[in-house]
Amino acid sequence: MTAPALYHSLPPSAACLPTVILALLAPLLPLLAALAPRVESGPSRAKLVHGSLLGSLAAAVVTALLVGLHGEAHSLCFQVDSLTAVMLLLVSFLGAVVTRYGCHYLAGDPGQSRFAKWLALTLTSVLTLIVSGNLLLFAVAWAATSLTLHKLLTFYPARPAALLAANKKFLFSRVGDLCLIAGLALAWRCFGTWDFQEMFSASANLSSGCVVPLAFLLVLAALLKSAQFPFHSWLPDTMETPTPVSALMHAGIINAGGFLVVRLSPILVNVPAALNALAITGAFTALFASVVMLTQTSIKRSLAYSTIAQMGFMMLQCGLGAFSLAVLHIVAHSLYKAHAFLSSGSVVALKKAAWSPTERPAAHPGILVGTLIAAIALTAGMGALFGLRWDADPGVLLLGTIFLMALAYLFWSLWATTHEPALLVKGLLAGAGASGAYFGLHAGFERLLAGSIPHYAPERSPMEAAVMIGVAALFMAVTILQAQLPCWSTSRRMRALYVHISNGAYLGTWANLLTARIFKNASTTI
C-alpha cells in the first residue's frame, strides 16, 4: 500500500503564513494567560484563562475558514490542513467550556489560580501537538501534555489515591515517550528529516526493514497514550482529580494516541502488520472495558471504563484503515463524554432509575439472532447504496456491522418487555436511519479529510481475513453474552465472575504494586 500522491513536499510561501499564524494563536493565547505576571487571585486567573480559550476558539474558526478557502498551509515546523482545523475547533471549544466550568467549580478554592495556570498550559500543549508539522515538535508537545496533566492530577496532594494514580499515569506515559523518542531516531535514520510531508512522500519507497520497527513504535506509543489494555488501569483511578480535569482529558489528551495514528497514517499504511496489531488490541480493549464498565457502581469510574472502550474502538477503526471514521469518533466521543463528566452529578438519578440485568426479563434468543441478521442486512444494503464494496472498503462495512449489532441489542432489550408490531416497525426504521447516518457521516468526513489522510483497505490475505473475522466474532460473542446475562445472573459461578470483572481482572492492583515499588512510596509525587 502506497501513500497517495497528495503527500508531497510543499515549499513555504507567503500565502501560507496568515493561516499558520492564525493557527498558532490557538496555543499561544492560553500560554500567555498561564504566564501572565501579576495575576495572583484565583478568579482573575480563571477568567483570564477562559477568555484566552475563547480567543483560541475564534482563531480556530478563522483558521478552518482559511483552510476551506485556500487549502492546507505548511510553513516552518507547522502544518495546517483539514485534520488540524477539525481538531483545533474541537479542543479549543472543549477548552473554553471546561475553563468556564472550572471558574465555578473551584470558586473559593485557595488553589484556583494554580489550577487555572496548569489547565491553560495543558491546553497549550495539546493545541501545539495539533498544529505540529514536524515529528520533533510533535514529540515535545506530546511529552509536555503528559507533564502538565500530571500537575492537574496531583492538584490535591493530600489524597494518596490520587497521587498513586498520577504516578501510575506518569510511569506509563514515560514508556510511551521512550517509544516516541526511539521513533524519532528511527525516522531520522530512515528519512533524514522529521518534516511530516517529506516523511510521507518518502515512506512508500523505503525498505520494510526501516519502516516496520518505526510503525510498531508509533503504534505502541499510541496504545500507551490512549489507555489501551493492559496499560489502561490509570484512567479509572484518576477520577480522584477535580471533575474539570476528567472532562479535559477528552479534549485531545486521551484521544492523542488516535490523533498520532491518523496524523502519521501515510507511514502506517505501508506496514499492514502494525495496523493488524492495532486492530486486535483495540477490539479486545473495547470488549474488555465495556464488560467491566457494566459492573461499576461509581458514575465516574463507569464513564472512565466507557472511555477506555471507546478508545479501543477508535484504535480498531484505525487498524482497519477507517481513519476518517476515527476522526469522526474522536469528535463525537469527546463532545459526549466531556458533557457526561460535567453533568455527572445529575446522572446519579438516572443511574438509580436504570434497569439492572436481573430486573429485565430475557427474551427468546431467536429474537436476538433475528435482529443481528437484520443488522447485517441493513449494513450491506445501506453500504451498497453509498457505493461501498467489501473488497474495497471492508473496514468501514465491518465497523458498520458492529455498530448495528449494538443497535440490535438495544432493540432486543426493548422487545424483551413488549412485542408490539408498532415497536418492531419503529426499530427497523430507526436502524435504517442510523445506518444511513453512519455511512453518510463517513462519506462526509472522508471528503473533508481527503487531503490529510490516505485511503487504505486491508489487503486480501489470510492474515487480514482472519483479523476481520476474529473481530466480528468477538463482538458477536459479547453481544450474545450481554443478552443472556439475565438468565445467568443467578448462577454461583457468574456471581463469582462478576466480582473478578468488577475488579478489572485485578490488572489495576498489579499496576499499583509495580508503581509503588518503583516510586518506593505511593504518597510521594513526582
Features of the shown structure:
single chain; 526 residues; mainly alpha; two-stranded antiparallel sheet; 1% strand
Structural class: mainly alpha
Share of residues in helices: over 70%
Q: From N to C, what is the helix and strand string?
A: HHEEHHHHHHHHHHHHHHHHHHHH
Terminal residue distance? 44 Å
Mean pLDDT across every amino acid position: 78
Number of strands: 2
How are the strands of the largest sheet arranged? 1-2
Number of helices: 22
- Basic shape: globular
What low-confidence regions span 5 or more consecutive residues with pLDDT below 50? Answer: 1-13, 350-361, 522-526
Main sheet properties: 2 strands, antiparallel
Residue share in β-strands: under 5%
Radius of gyration: 23 Å
Task: Walk me through this protein's architecture.
With 526 residues, the chain is mainly alpha-helical. The chain has 22 helices and 2 strands. It has a two-stranded antiparallel sheet. Strand 1 and strand 2 (78-80) form a beta hairpin. Helix 6 (160-191) crosses helix 22, helix 8 runs parallel beside helix 13 (272-293) and helix 13 packs antiparallel against helix 14. The longest helix is centred in the middle third of the chain and has 32 residues, at 160-191. The relative contact order is 0.10.
